[in-house]
Write a structure and sequence with these properties.
Elements: H1 8-12, E1 30-33, E2 45-51, H2 56-72, E3 77-83, H3 91-105, E4 112-115, H4 120-126, E5 136-140, E6 146-150, H5 155-163, H6 171-211, H7 214-227, H8 232-245, H9 249-266, H10 269-276, H11 291-308, H12 319-331, H13 335-351, H14 356-374, E7 378-380, E8 383-385, H15 400-403
Parallel strand pairs: 2-3, 3-4
Antiparallel strand pairs: 1-4, 2-5, 5-6, 7-8
Length: 404
């Protein structure tokens, strides 16, 4: 395998897209906003941004792209958004969801949005450039060549230099491109290795979970953690099996304590969401838990979650953590705060881009919690819930790759 310390010029020799490479064509199914870009016109500069409506960082970058389009339109700059990673079971569902989200969330968008459900743009642009995550910005210069590939937060610095012709030949541009390619190579290799390792373990785990063979499931999870100790999906499931399936408090509590500490240290809402769902879930039995410690951990996690993903913000999948946080407040006697947080989660879901069936499934848990907190039957669109003491069953087990 080629060393990740290769320079950008050496990588370019291996047909990797880098600064100076000719930009491939744009191949998409539909244009949902703006004028279609059928070719890169000489003399114009294009910012091509790969995004998805489920990606909080992508959404956060859109206002700056709007600003850049306004600021540099007279300099021949044209921004193009490529929605190449929308999640739905069919292209029609994904397109309709994306179109509705654009209408509701960014009605005054001033740049074009293309829809690519088939993934052709990833094959042509993302994969050959070793671009792993989104959002990723590609800047195509006046000669139809890449002047920049990277994160959109770097555009404020790079774009003026691209426009005056000083960027592509600068040491800064070469260093960023080399670092990007090296990092992309490493991440792609790590992802490939992880996938090869996880899939057979996950197959055994999924089979054991369906059979409710908790000992076999625990063995598979511990095997996975020996190879990937920092995989949050397995970390959470490890605590779940020990505490709520096998009911081994002696082994499970240290696992949960470490998960809580790591989640807070990482300042990761995803990790904290996984941890708090082991502590506050109306469907789980906590009779064997040490009462004071459970509520102390719940308080710590709730405060950190709300600080990192506040109710006033529009980012972050609030339904992932807000249900458990609301349950903590409900059990501590703060019923109004619990109701407020569940209402925020439902409001977030209402604005979130999701096709009807998926949204209906996801909304059941917060709707059920709200009905129970208010002691009344409630309906949300086509979903209705009556008060009850237990929440719906947990969602079907998903692999780390699917959950990412």
């Amino acid at each position: 395998m080629t060393s990740v310390t290769e320079s950008a010029s050496q990588v370019g020799a291996a047909n990797v897209l880098s600064v100076g490479s000719p930009a491939p064509s744009i191949k998409v199914e539909d244009w949902l906003r703006g004028q279609p870009v059928t070719k890169f016109e000489p003399g114009k500069v294009y910012i091509v941004e790969f995004l998805a409506t489920w990606c909080g960082t992508c959404i956060a970058s859109m206002p700056n792209l709007v600003i850049l389009q306004d600021k540099y339109r007279n300099n021949g700059v044209e921004v193009v958004g490529i929605a190449a990673h929308e999640q739905a079971s069919t292209a029609d569902e994904a397109r309709a969801s994306l179109d509705a989200w654009l209408t509701n969330s960014v009605p005054n968008l001033n740049y074009a949005i293309a829809f690519d459900y088939a993934g052709e743009m990833s094959k042509l642009w993302m994969d050959p450039s070793f671009s792993v995550g989104i959002p990723t910005s590609f800047v195509v210069d006046r000669d139809g060549r890449f002047a920049f590939i990277g994160h959109s937060t770097q555009l404020d610095n790079a774009l003026p230099k691209i426009l005056n012709g000083s960027w592509a030949v600068s040491d800064e541009a070469k260093a960023l491109d080399t670092a990007r390619i090296n990092t992309g190579r490493r991440r792609k290799r790590e992802l490939s290795q992880k996938q090869a390792l996880v899939e057979p373990i996950f197959a055994r785990l999924e089979s054991a979970m369906k059979r409710k063979d908790w000992a076999a499931a625990l063995s598979a999870v511990e095997e996975a953690l020996a190879a990937m100790p920092d995989e949050v999906t397995f970390r959470g499931l490890h605590a779940e099996l020990l505490l709520h399936k096998i009911r081994d408090m002696g082994a499970g509590l240290p696992v949960l304590r470490q998960l809580v500490r790591d989640a807070i240290d990482k300042k990761s809402v995803v990790w904290m969401s996984v941890a708090i769902r082991q502590l506050f879930d109306a469907a789980k039995d906590y009779s064997g838990f040490p009462h004071a410690e459970r509520f102390a951990m719940g308080k710590d996690l709730s405060e950190h979650i709300l600080a990192a993903n506040p109710p006033q913000g529009s980012e972050g999948a609030k339904f992932l953590s807000y249900g458990a946080v609301a349950q903590y407040y409900y059990e501590t006697g703060r019923r109004d705060r619990a109701i407020e947080l569940v209402e925020v989660a439902l409001k977030w879901l209402d604005a979130a881009p999701a096709w009807d069936v998926a949204k209906r499934d996801v909304v059941q848990c917060p709707l059920q919690a709200l009905a129970s907190y208010r002691s009344e039957k409630l309906c949300y669109e086509e979903c209705c819930s009556a008060p009850q003491n237990t929440a719906p069953e947990e969602p079907e087990l998903r692999s780390p790759r699917e959950a990412a």
